[in-house]
Amino acid sequence: MIIVLTFLLGLILLYFGGELLVKGSVAFSLRIRISTLVVGMTVVSFATSAPELFVSLQAVFAGSNDIAFGNVVGSNIANIALVLGITASIFRVTISNQTVNINYPFLLFVSLFFGLVLYFFDGIPRLLGLLFIVFLMFFIIYLIKKSREQNLKHSIEDSLLQEINKSSVFRELSFLFLGVLLLKYGADFLVDSSISIAKIFDISERVIAVTVVAIGTSIPELATSIIAAIKKEDNLAVGNLIGSNIFNILAVLGIVASINEIRILDSAILTFDYVWMIGITFLLGAFIYLFSKSKISRFEGLTLVILYCIYLYSSI
Fold it and tell me: How far apart are CA 82 and CA 17, in angstroms?
């Protein structure tokens, strides 16, 4: 019973930590007039990927590499199939030109490169972890530069800026600090209880990671995307998810691997979970480029959710 309560406490702390981190980081970014698309692809993506980062770091330090990999791969599947699927099922989501021309192609490249690294190195060596981070830095710099060239910063609504200006920098930084603190302890509770649950029920750490832990760490993305869709901020809703998947691979695994090399212990991570991840990513591309073209329809959203249910059932 205590283990279950600890697990739930970990999820709650991750949720509120992610919420505070998103609020603080978005407010601070809009204060310096960065466009909502760039905010979604960078600041919000990193903020909503923070639970994955803390969970993966804690898992590696605890010697549970499968939780580190399973958490990221499972979260990437959940972000597209579950989060985007639910969001699109409720609201027909429009895909921006930048997502079509730059963001999705980069996500596909990163996902394929990640698979090649896992296949040839059976994990992520420290040097390649550093390379992941370099890729991410170049991508962020490119996005910000392109945003300035196109003057996208002027697309931010004046009413939103006025609301942000009412806030204080101290309040925004306090949100960031408290968010990181809650994420740290939430990750500790979640990983420790997940390992204990896996041992009690004789379930592999990989299965726990790609299902329950992955869904738990995707809660900030779900909340952000639905709120953004309600406010008609399609750029933020979709940019947050695609950016989060990029950050999960390049930032989360890159940072973790650069500190401590990560090795695959359960081969199913590559032969099953990664196959699902890249398959869902390709399907998203088909929806964007072939079918409804630059939109995710309600039918396509429901299709993604059904596929996620099939993935969960197959994993368990």
Answer: 21
Rounded CA-CA distance 65/25 in Å is 29
The per-residue pLDDT for range 159-195, each reduced to its tens digit, is: 555 555 556 777 877 887 788 788 778 878 877 888 7
Whole-prediction pTM value?
A: 0.81
In this structure, the strands spanning 93-94 and 262-263 are unpaired
What is the SS3 string spanning the chain? CHHHHHHHHHHHHHHHHHHHHHHHHHHHHHHCCCCHHHHHHHHHHHHHHHHHHHHHHHHHHCCCHHHHHHHHHHHHHHHHHHHHHHHHHHCCEECCHHHHHHHHHHHHHHHHHHHHHHHHHCEECHHHHHHHHHHHHHHHHHHHHHHHHCCHHHHCCHHHHHHHHHCCHHHHHHHHHHHHHHHHHHHHHHHHHHHHHHHHCCCCHHHHHHHHHHHHHCHHHHHHHHHHHHCCCHHHHHHHHHHHHHHHHHHHHHHHHHHCCEECCCCHHHHHHHHHHHHHHHHHHHHHHCCCCCEECHHHHHHHHHHHHHHHHHHC
